[in-house]
## 1
Amino acid sequence: MLRLRSCCRRSAEVLLPPAAAQQRKRLSTGPQQKHRSFYEFRTYSIRPDQNAAFLKLTNEKIHLRTAHSELIGYWSVEYGGLNKVFHIWKYDSYSQRAGVRAALSQDPSWISEYISKAIPMLVSQDNEVNYLVPWSHLHEPPKEGGVYELASFQMRPGGPAVWGDRFQAAVTSHDAPGYGKLVGAFHSECGLLNKVHALWWFESADQRAEVRHKSHTDARVVAAVRNCVAHLDSQENKLMFPCSFSPLK
């Protein structure tokens, strides 16, 4: 049956006029992921009365977790959500992540010294699998400190073949002298689909506010954002401060 469907599909493609075939190709393809590495975004909501205790425990015991896989960054959310932490973990493949999870479940130190104490402090946990978009690389900020912004955009269905170029233009228009520093741009693989994220670094929350005002009068930025917003359903952001044990500071 699969072979028959495949043959029918190829026959239909042959019958398409060249213009229609080209349009179908444009709508069904886009920039492809060139490697298997992915980034797991995790957001934990903490009981308000346990926020300080959770961060202290994590600071003391995070080495038990990083012994198993690579931590990219760990932040405490300051604006856009209270009593939350956000962290990014890198994996080379899904099988590597599965191996890490299996090893953690058998690690007595991790379970007794951290998990058994941390879980009662949490209200909820959420995760999402993301890839770096093909044109983005992970960058370190110019210096330590400052504030990070995670800007998240829910794009309309269609994928990067439809809105990828405009999203890239909108993001890179802000990644210029006098603006913020783009740490990385990501697109979702597991979680809400057609979702993209831009992780930014600013010297301070005040500098970010100044940049926002500046962008509203920058014709180059305004034009790029207007071209992209036609494909946008919703957006949200959070401002975060890196924890002392975060590799990205």
## 2
Amino acid sequence: MVTGASTGIGRHLAEGLAARGMAVAGLARGEERLRTAMDEVAAATGGRTLAVAADVTDRASVEEAVGVVRAELGPIALLVNNAGLIDEFEVPVWEADPDQWWDVVSSHVRGALLTVRTVVPWMVLRNSGRIVNIASGMSTRANPDYSAYSVAKTGLMRLTESLATALEGSDVRAFDVAPGVVDTPMTRSMHMWEGFTDWTPPERVVELIAAIAAGELDQWSGRFIRAGKDDLDVLCTLAPDDADRQLRLHTYGGDDPLG
């Protein structure tokens, strides 16, 4: 199940996963565009797809959508939380519209929370499942012009680690996957990427998430990996130590009382 599947990275993921033989349920708010996208994916891949219109920030909508997915396609083995908004204007936080700012945060954090609380209990019962939260470079460092997006993506990383910690001992795992800078309508709308050409191929995002779904990167549960920079073969052979690829406070030296 991929949220935000009608366009951008979500659309690439739906097609890439379907091409690998997965039955893919796509969620998005715009029903017509979503159905068109899922029909196109099915036609291009020969895979089975399902379009379910839903607002991931609405609890009843998410619960109804997950019920439809489970009824039509069976148990959800992979959840990809991709849906989310971006700051409407590139301005410092005190100039941002507070309602739009909060909508951005809610779309990522509340959206992921609601899908997790609806999908993960079934994964726990089956003792099988993988959750991927789509992270960002802004998860790990602030951007003054995209404060809401930065806050949202950082919160999503902490949610992933909390989830992974709570799932320890089970065969249900949670991951942060940063897609890099994929050429999508959203990135094209951001002034910071004007003139940018070194796009991350969406296939690199798909291959990481497909590997997660196959259980090849389980040792990275609760941690951050980045498409287009991380090499899949290397990740498969590495076992991270301590807080590698997790959000932590850097101390100021040996005398720091928080050290």
## 3
Amino acid sequence: MAEPEWLKNMNRDDYMKEDLDASGKSEAGTTIDGIDKNDPDWLDKAAKKVNAAEGNDYVKLDSGLLTVNQINWMLRNTIGEMTFVDDNNQFLWYNRPTDPNYKMKAKRVPEQVGDTMKAVHPDVRDVIPDAKKVVHALRTKQDGHDDVYMPVPTGNLKELVLHYYKRVEDDNGNYAGIYEWVQDLYPLVKYFCETTGQKLVVDTDATSGATYRRNSDPDASSGASTKAEEVKEEKHEEPDTTSGASQH
């Protein structure tokens, strides 16, 4: 992933101390003891132990009253892939897709719920140090940052998969975990352009994004129209006002 400069400059000795084995306990006191965190049946066992609400049981939220089923339905149909990890680095939840054939961009399976962060991120290609870096940065609010944008180069100029990590705080501003949102941004940008009647063009003078463009295939089946040569010609055309004209 392409990490921001402030994250690259973090002290390695500091963030490598991050405990991805989740061997401690949540500061909020929500860690469920007595069950192996990496047990594939952790969810059912943990829910039974704490008599968790389910089905048509109501949950009072700070601005609403919903059943567990309603919360599940809403989150499973929310755009993007979402996960939550608590302050003890335990993976507690993700919004499982409604379509069983949907290929997740950041694959998760039900058996992983309850796993430690170390188990969710196998130690290949320096994934563990990178995960520790993001977690530690948000735990400590490094340089005042409470979120991290990590775009994933895909080799296609019409696809930009973003991993967005947000620091979650309790009512007193204490660190409570991390919320992650994963989404290919291009469909949203495409919709924006179609709605407003605008275009995407390559800025040949821009310094940002140069590496991404250089490593992408402009002739890919879904990216042919982004070739610099075609863009140069488009710059001399009149704006397309057939769609979204009223919003110009």
